[in-house]
Amino acid sequence: xxxxxxSITYLKHLGYCVVRLPRSDMAPLExxxxxxxxxxxxxxxxxxxxxxxxxxxxxxxEDNIAPGGISGKETxxxxxxxxxxxxxxxxxxxxGSDLGLTAGYSRARSLIFEFDDVQEDHxxxxxxxxxxxxxxxxxxxxxxxxxxxxxKVYVVNSTLKTTRMTVQAKGENGARVGLDxxxxxxxxxxxxxxxxxRAAEGSxxxxxxxxxxxxxxxxxxxxxxxxxxYTAVDPLDAGRMAARELGRIEPDYLTLDEGVxxxxxxxxxx
Length: 270
What we know:
By secondary structure, this protein is of the alpha+beta class. The protein is built from six helices and 14 strands. The protein has a six-stranded mixed beta barrel with strand order 1-12-10-2-3-14. Residues 248-270 have low confidence and may be disordered.
Protein backbone atom coordinates (compact mmCIF):
# COMPACT_ATOMS: atom_id res chain seq x y z
CA UNK A 1 0.00 0.00 0.00
CA UNK A 2 1.41 3.39 -0.98
CA UNK A 3 1.96 6.03 1.68
CA UNK A 4 -0.42 9.02 1.81
CA UNK A 5 0.74 12.09 -0.07
CA UNK A 6 1.59 14.52 2.75
CA SER A 7 1.22 17.52 0.44
CA ILE A 8 -2.48 16.63 0.12
CA THR A 9 -3.36 15.09 3.49
CA TYR A 10 -1.91 17.56 6.00
CA LEU A 11 -5.33 19.17 6.62
CA LYS A 12 -7.23 15.88 6.69
CA HIS A 13 -7.53 15.73 10.49
CA LEU A 14 -9.02 19.24 10.38
CA GLY A 15 -11.73 18.02 7.97
CA TYR A 16 -10.49 19.92 4.90
CA CYS A 17 -8.74 19.46 1.58
CA VAL A 18 -5.68 21.43 0.50
CA VAL A 19 -5.38 24.34 -1.93
CA ARG A 20 -2.07 23.66 -3.70
CA LEU A 21 -1.42 27.32 -4.50
CA PRO A 22 -3.23 29.37 -1.84
CA ARG A 23 -5.09 32.36 -3.25
CA SER A 24 -7.17 35.22 -1.89
CA ASP A 25 -9.89 34.83 -4.53
CA MET A 26 -11.05 31.24 -3.95
CA ALA A 27 -14.56 31.15 -2.49
CA PRO A 28 -17.65 29.02 -1.85
CA LEU A 29 -19.72 28.22 -4.96
CA GLU A 30 -16.58 27.96 -7.06
CA UNK A 31 -16.59 24.96 -9.39
CA UNK A 32 -13.80 22.39 -9.65
CA UNK A 33 -13.35 19.66 -12.26
CA UNK A 34 -11.47 16.47 -11.56
CA UNK A 35 -8.52 16.18 -13.94
CA UNK A 36 -6.53 13.42 -12.26
CA UNK A 37 -6.50 11.02 -9.36
CA UNK A 38 -5.66 13.72 -6.82
CA UNK A 39 -6.29 16.98 -8.67
CA UNK A 40 -9.31 19.26 -8.88
CA UNK A 41 -8.92 22.14 -11.31
CA UNK A 42 -10.48 25.51 -10.59
CA UNK A 43 -12.77 26.47 -13.47
CA UNK A 44 -14.92 29.40 -12.35
CA UNK A 45 -18.14 29.84 -10.42
CA UNK A 46 -21.43 27.94 -10.39
CA UNK A 47 -23.49 30.91 -11.60
CA UNK A 48 -21.60 30.86 -14.91
CA UNK A 49 -22.66 27.31 -15.83
CA UNK A 50 -26.24 27.10 -14.54
CA UNK A 51 -29.56 28.69 -15.47
CA UNK A 52 -31.47 29.42 -12.22
CA UNK A 53 -34.92 27.94 -11.74
CA UNK A 54 -37.45 28.60 -9.00
CA UNK A 55 -34.84 28.60 -6.23
CA UNK A 56 -32.12 31.21 -5.81
CA UNK A 57 -28.39 30.65 -5.63
CA UNK A 58 -27.47 30.13 -1.95
CA UNK A 59 -25.86 33.11 -0.22
CA UNK A 60 -22.27 32.91 1.03
CA UNK A 61 -21.69 33.53 4.75
CA GLU A 62 -18.31 35.22 5.17
CA ASP A 63 -15.70 35.82 7.88
CA ASN A 64 -17.00 33.29 10.38
CA ILE A 65 -14.91 31.90 13.24
CA ALA A 66 -13.38 28.70 11.90
CA PRO A 67 -15.24 25.57 13.08
CA GLY A 68 -13.86 23.07 15.55
CA GLY A 69 -11.17 25.32 16.95
CA ILE A 70 -9.11 25.07 13.76
CA SER A 71 -7.24 28.27 14.65
CA GLY A 72 -4.08 27.31 16.49
CA LYS A 73 -4.33 23.61 15.71
CA GLU A 74 -1.22 22.02 14.26
CA THR A 75 -1.19 20.17 10.98
CA UNK A 76 0.33 16.73 10.75
CA UNK A 77 4.12 16.64 10.54
CA UNK A 78 5.58 16.45 7.04
CA UNK A 79 8.94 15.87 5.46
CA UNK A 80 11.10 18.95 5.08
CA UNK A 81 11.07 19.08 1.28
CA UNK A 82 7.29 18.82 1.18
CA UNK A 83 6.87 21.37 3.96
CA UNK A 84 9.22 23.86 2.30
CA UNK A 85 7.30 23.59 -0.94
CA UNK A 86 4.04 24.33 0.90
CA UNK A 87 5.67 27.15 2.86
CA UNK A 88 7.06 28.70 -0.32
CA UNK A 89 3.61 28.67 -1.95
CA UNK A 90 2.06 30.34 1.10
CA UNK A 91 4.79 32.99 1.36
CA UNK A 92 4.32 33.86 -2.32
CA UNK A 93 0.56 34.05 -1.76
CA UNK A 94 1.22 36.53 1.07
CA UNK A 95 3.15 38.65 -1.43
CA GLY A 96 6.65 37.64 -0.38
CA SER A 97 9.59 35.84 -1.93
CA ASP A 98 10.91 32.43 -0.89
CA LEU A 99 14.22 32.75 -2.72
CA GLY A 100 16.91 31.16 -0.56
CA LEU A 101 14.43 30.07 2.12
CA THR A 102 15.69 26.47 2.10
CA ALA A 103 19.04 27.53 3.57
CA GLY A 104 17.32 28.94 6.67
CA TYR A 105 15.87 25.52 7.45
CA SER A 106 19.04 23.54 6.72
CA ARG A 107 19.08 21.95 10.19
CA ALA A 108 15.44 20.83 10.05
CA ARG A 109 14.09 17.44 8.97
CA SER A 110 10.35 18.06 9.20
CA LEU A 111 7.85 20.94 9.46
CA ILE A 112 4.53 21.43 11.23
CA PHE A 113 2.14 24.27 10.33
CA GLU A 114 -0.19 26.16 12.61
CA PHE A 115 -2.71 28.55 11.04
CA ASP A 116 -3.75 31.42 13.31
CA ASP A 117 -6.88 33.61 13.37
CA VAL A 118 -8.54 31.39 10.77
CA GLN A 119 -11.83 32.50 9.26
CA GLU A 120 -14.31 30.41 7.33
CA ASP A 121 -16.65 31.26 4.45
CA HIS A 122 -19.42 28.83 3.55
CA UNK A 123 -22.57 28.19 1.54
CA UNK A 124 -25.30 25.98 2.97
CA UNK A 125 -25.40 22.57 1.28
CA UNK A 126 -29.15 22.30 1.81
CA UNK A 127 -29.73 25.55 -0.09
CA UNK A 128 -27.25 24.48 -2.75
CA UNK A 129 -29.22 21.26 -3.20
CA UNK A 130 -32.47 23.23 -3.52
CA UNK A 131 -30.94 25.57 -6.11
CA UNK A 132 -29.59 22.71 -8.22
CA UNK A 133 -32.89 20.81 -8.05
CA UNK A 134 -34.67 23.55 -10.02
CA UNK A 135 -31.73 24.90 -12.04
CA UNK A 136 -30.66 23.63 -15.47
CA UNK A 137 -27.34 23.37 -17.29
CA UNK A 138 -26.58 26.25 -19.66
CA UNK A 139 -26.97 25.05 -23.25
CA UNK A 140 -24.11 27.15 -24.67
CA UNK A 141 -21.19 25.16 -23.28
CA UNK A 142 -19.60 21.83 -24.13
CA UNK A 143 -16.66 20.86 -21.94
CA UNK A 144 -18.21 21.67 -18.58
CA UNK A 145 -21.50 20.05 -19.61
CA UNK A 146 -19.66 16.82 -20.42
CA UNK A 147 -17.93 17.00 -17.05
CA UNK A 148 -21.28 17.50 -15.28
CA UNK A 149 -22.87 14.51 -17.01
CA UNK A 150 -19.80 12.43 -16.11
CA UNK A 151 -20.14 13.52 -12.45
CA LYS A 152 -16.70 15.16 -12.44
CA VAL A 153 -17.75 18.63 -11.26
CA TYR A 154 -17.45 19.69 -7.64
CA VAL A 155 -18.74 22.82 -5.91
CA VAL A 156 -16.84 24.40 -3.03
CA ASN A 157 -19.06 24.80 0.02
CA SER A 158 -16.52 25.95 2.62
CA THR A 159 -13.12 27.67 2.63
CA LEU A 160 -10.54 28.44 5.32
CA LYS A 161 -8.50 31.64 5.14
CA THR A 162 -5.89 33.41 7.23
CA THR A 163 -3.26 36.14 7.22
CA ARG A 164 -0.94 34.48 9.72
CA MET A 165 0.80 31.14 9.96
CA THR A 166 3.42 29.70 12.32
CA VAL A 167 5.86 27.06 11.12
CA GLN A 168 7.54 24.73 13.61
CA ALA A 169 10.75 23.04 12.44
CA LYS A 170 11.90 19.74 13.94
CA GLY A 171 15.21 17.94 13.75
CA GLU A 172 16.02 14.26 14.01
CA ASN A 173 13.52 12.29 16.12
CA GLY A 174 11.34 15.41 16.53
CA ALA A 175 13.93 17.37 18.50
CA ARG A 176 13.84 21.18 18.52
CA VAL A 177 16.18 22.79 16.05
CA GLY A 178 17.46 26.34 15.72
CA LEU A 179 16.93 28.24 12.48
CA ASP A 180 19.21 30.59 10.59
CA UNK A 181 17.46 33.89 11.30
CA UNK A 182 19.50 36.20 9.03
CA UNK A 183 19.02 33.85 6.09
CA UNK A 184 15.26 33.62 6.63
CA UNK A 185 14.88 37.38 7.05
CA UNK A 186 16.93 38.02 3.93
CA UNK A 187 15.15 35.33 1.90
CA UNK A 188 11.59 36.24 2.84
CA UNK A 189 11.14 39.69 1.39
CA UNK A 190 8.03 41.46 0.16
CA UNK A 191 4.65 42.38 1.58
CA UNK A 192 4.69 40.26 4.72
CA UNK A 193 6.03 40.37 8.27
CA UNK A 194 8.27 37.70 9.80
CA UNK A 195 8.43 37.10 13.55
CA UNK A 196 11.63 35.24 14.46
CA UNK A 197 11.49 35.76 18.23
CA ARG A 198 11.25 31.99 18.76
CA ALA A 199 13.53 30.94 15.91
CA ALA A 200 16.00 29.40 18.37
CA GLU A 201 13.23 26.92 19.21
CA GLY A 202 12.48 26.30 15.53
CA SER A 203 9.36 28.48 15.34
CA UNK A 204 8.78 31.35 12.88
CA UNK A 205 5.53 33.23 12.21
CA UNK A 206 4.70 34.67 8.78
CA UNK A 207 1.96 37.30 8.41
CA UNK A 208 0.55 38.81 5.25
CA UNK A 209 -1.74 41.76 4.60
CA UNK A 210 -4.56 39.95 2.75
CA UNK A 211 -6.22 36.67 3.86
CA UNK A 212 -5.40 33.69 1.67
CA UNK A 213 -7.48 30.54 1.26
CA UNK A 214 -5.51 27.41 2.14
CA UNK A 215 -8.23 24.78 2.73
CA UNK A 216 -11.63 23.87 1.33
CA UNK A 217 -14.56 21.46 1.44
CA UNK A 218 -16.59 20.55 -1.63
CA UNK A 219 -19.41 18.35 -2.88
CA UNK A 220 -19.54 16.42 -6.14
CA UNK A 221 -22.61 16.99 -8.33
CA UNK A 222 -24.40 13.85 -9.51
CA UNK A 223 -26.36 14.07 -12.77
CA UNK A 224 -28.58 11.61 -14.60
CA UNK A 225 -26.94 10.68 -17.91
CA UNK A 226 -30.16 10.32 -19.87
CA UNK A 227 -32.02 13.44 -18.73
CA UNK A 228 -29.01 15.64 -17.85
CA UNK A 229 -30.82 16.52 -14.63
CA TYR A 230 -29.34 16.94 -11.17
CA THR A 231 -30.01 14.14 -8.68
CA ALA A 232 -27.72 14.41 -5.63
CA VAL A 233 -24.49 15.64 -4.03
CA ASP A 234 -21.54 13.59 -2.84
CA PRO A 235 -19.34 15.20 -0.14
CA LEU A 236 -15.62 15.08 -0.90
CA ASP A 237 -13.62 13.26 1.76
CA ALA A 238 -11.13 15.42 3.65
CA GLY A 239 -7.58 15.06 2.42
CA ARG A 240 -8.58 13.06 -0.66
CA MET A 241 -7.76 15.61 -3.37
CA ALA A 242 -6.27 19.08 -3.78
CA ALA A 243 -7.37 22.13 -5.75
CA ARG A 244 -5.04 23.65 -8.31
CA GLU A 245 -5.08 26.75 -10.46
CA LEU A 246 -7.56 27.85 -13.07
CA GLY A 247 -6.79 26.48 -16.49
CA ARG A 248 -7.97 24.70 -19.58
CA ILE A 249 -9.73 21.38 -19.05
CA GLU A 250 -8.16 18.78 -21.29
CA PRO A 251 -10.59 16.60 -23.29
CA ASP A 252 -9.18 13.43 -21.75
CA TYR A 253 -9.70 14.44 -18.11
CA LEU A 254 -9.32 11.23 -16.20
CA THR A 255 -11.85 8.81 -14.83
CA LEU A 256 -13.38 9.31 -11.43
CA ASP A 257 -13.15 6.72 -8.67
CA GLU A 258 -16.76 5.97 -7.96
CA GLY A 259 -17.92 6.53 -4.40
CA VAL A 260 -21.13 6.36 -2.44
CA UNK A 261 -23.28 9.45 -2.81
CA UNK A 262 -26.34 10.47 -0.88
CA UNK A 263 -29.56 12.18 -1.83
CA UNK A 264 -30.37 15.10 0.42
CA UNK A 265 -34.01 14.08 0.72
CA UNK A 266 -33.02 10.52 1.74
CA UNK A 267 -30.90 11.94 4.54
CA UNK A 268 -33.93 13.86 5.80
CA UNK A 269 -32.25 17.26 5.45
CA UNK A 270 -33.77 18.64 2.27
